[in-house]
TrEMBL record, chain A:
<dbReference type="GO" id="GO:0016226">
    <property type="term" value="P:iron-sulfur cluster assembly"/>
</dbReference>
<dbReference type="GO" id="GO:0051536">
    <property type="term" value="F:iron-sulfur cluster binding"/>
</dbReference>
<dbReference type="Pfam" id="PF01592">
    <property type="entry name" value="NifU_N"/>
</dbReference>
<dbReference type="InterPro" id="IPR002871">
    <property type="entry name" value="NIF_FeS_clus_asmbl_NifU_N"/>
</dbReference>
<protein>
    <submittedName>
        <fullName>Fe-S cluster assembly scaffold IscU</fullName>
    </submittedName>
</protein>
<feature type="domain" description="NIF system FeS cluster assembly NifU N-terminal">
    <location>
        <begin position="2"/>
        <end position="134"/>
    </location>
</feature>
<dbReference type="GO" id="GO:0005506">
    <property type="term" value="F:iron ion binding"/>
</dbReference>
Amino acid sequence: MAYSKKVVDKFENTINEPAKYNVGRFDPKEMNVGTGMVGAPACGDVMKLQIKCESKGNTHIIKDVKFKTYGCGSAIASSSELVEMLIGKTLEEAKEIKNIDIVEALELPPIKIHCSVLAEDSIKQAIEDYEQKQ
Amino acid sequence: MSNEINLPIYMDYASTTPVDPRVAKKISDHLTLDGNFGNPASRSHKFGWKAEEAVEEARSHVANLVNCDPREIVWTSGATEADNLAIKGIANFYQMNGKHIITSKIEHKAVLDPCRQLERDGFEVTYLEPNEGGLITPEAVLNAIREDTILISIMHINNELGTINDLGGIGKIARENGIFFHVDAAQSTGKIAIDLSSLPVDLMSFSAHKTYGPKGIGALFVRRKPRVRIEAQIHGGGHERGMRSGTLPTHQIVGMGEAFRIAKEEMDNDKIKIQSLHDKFYDSISKIEEIYVNGDTDNKVNNILNISFAYVEGESLIMALKDIAVSSGSACTSASLEPSYVLRALGRKDELASSSIRFSFGRFTTEEDVDYTLTLINHAVDRLRELSPLWEMYLDGIDLDTVDWQTH
């Protein structure tokens, strides 16, 4: 599998410095935490994404993000890339993030596009979970 | 870390081996004007005679390693061609006797694909399931035999697992039922002794490049007593007693001969060395939590270790182990996204099948290579598990089979 340098770098940085790259977890029961988990072990990838938000005016801002991903190199790079895009965004802005943004940022090969789709699904689900709690 | 380690470390000897320097020397002596470059089929001058002599000496070395008559060895371009020649050769020659073939689901593609081709030509093929240890039992073969079965093709050592099939047991059943028995032994030479004078095997495929010889050369053993006949698949000149035409590549043939001569001479030493590397590797790696060795450990060779690291995905593990050359499943299929068909045939769950890595050592592997590899594996598995939501759930005591996953 010939990955772009961007995928390889993102993957290596993430596994070598997990704390810096937001690997970890929040308590999913906390009211200001939204959790999304998508994928299946049998399909080869599972992404778990958690957002911690704060209300500001009539919207909510993503203050912090944690994630864990089981999957191929590009699945791990895709979630890590997404996490960086999310911090500081309002929920409305976060909903605007599409898988193609990740594909472009990482120069994903066509055979790995599904990793970016999974990442998009994980943020959608995390926001949904958060909004249901409010 | 030691400065002497050359990165990346080669841990993929089951995919191919480097050519032994002694073999390389032999090859280079058979190429240029000042060497033995002649066409072994030239009858009218010394260049041809000398080349033929070198080819026949190499044939004796190959025959000597597996204890057969040199006249039973047919040169091919490799084990893939030998498998094709054996399977299609028998099927074409004996199709009047029946059109049923027995093979297994864990064969190399070089056996499976010719069988698929024969199915398109009107043959019927039974693909046996291995037991959970990755072995094809003589009983399984016996139960699949029909009146119209003409060929059984079962591999000796499985390339992904290193498991060793019972050739004596399967061959006995084949003999009793008057069925030809072909064995793909590409992984066997130099690893375990083969005695074709006593083994009830009719055809056996060999490869040079898995045993420190060059790529592009192999051989098929075709038994003379009782006589086995095959229909040629490549025509043009009638070389190799009509079974395989084409000018013999003297340099590759002497390379294979030298490699097999050395294999015979050094097999005992190689085995002791590999055993000690294997034990060192296995003792350390078995201390990692939640790992599974694939294949029956009581019936396997020590140079191949196939391990599943639960809760870690295989491709990411290989990426994290970029300083070690290993393969996940068979190198021929690792370009695809499918988990290994061999591991799936063992009944491994997809996620365990896709988290498997095959480590294979060889003649030039050092203890330092093994130590360094172990350090990298421990580090990579720790890091990827820290990143794995499945590992987190496992530590939390959640049974992953009870989770309602969203498949995609």
